[in-house]
Amino acid sequence: MEQEIDMNELGEKIVKVLKTIFDPEIPVDIYELGLIYDVFVNENREVKILMTLTSPNCPVAETLPMEIQEKVASIDMVKDVEIELTFEPAWSKDLMSEEAKLELGML
User: Over the stretch 28-49, which tens digit does the pLDDT of each residue have?
Assistant: First the structure.
């Protein structure tokens, strides 16, 4: 049970870190923007993040995943981080949170 609590705490810490990373072209963090499709954490505290970009030609296609990997790896409880980039399904504005839509004046 104690490890379960640790895993939940670790998941919360990962999301908190993801919310500090912003798309340089849109003033919304990548989590609220809907670029993070899933976060997996195994019992060895290895993290895999499934994410996308707003478009395959995104100017930060090379730097953004590296920034995410470095920031998530800096969390004490994380042992390893793998970033998997996918374009299936393609990102759309429908993936944005209500908070992000409000921030961008879309509501």
Answer: 999 999 999 999 999 999 999 9
